[in-house]
Write a structure and sequence with these properties.
- It contains four helices and no strands.
- The chain is mainly α.
- The longest helix has 17 residues, at 32-48.
Length: 98
Amino acid sequence: MSSASLKEILERSKLLTNQVLQQELPPIERGLEQIDIQSSKLTSKTTQHDDGGDNKALYFLAQGGVNSQVLMRDLGTIHIGMQPEHRQPIQDTDVEVD
């Protein structure tokens, strides 16, 4: 299988999503509290089980014909906007009043 570029993957994904009908997928209705609980559970699972997922992902991509080196290079060139400013908390917050 030849190596797939990001554009090819995007086009294939668009074709797949066009094939899926809205009626085939059940609606998902969750409240904010349920979403918060589920995201907390997922976060705790992922922080506990860091078992070399990068290697598994690279292997999976290679099986699909994706050149991971080219993909990583392409992803590194994506500019997502202004970098967030990292702020440090002020340790001394005492205020003197005259």
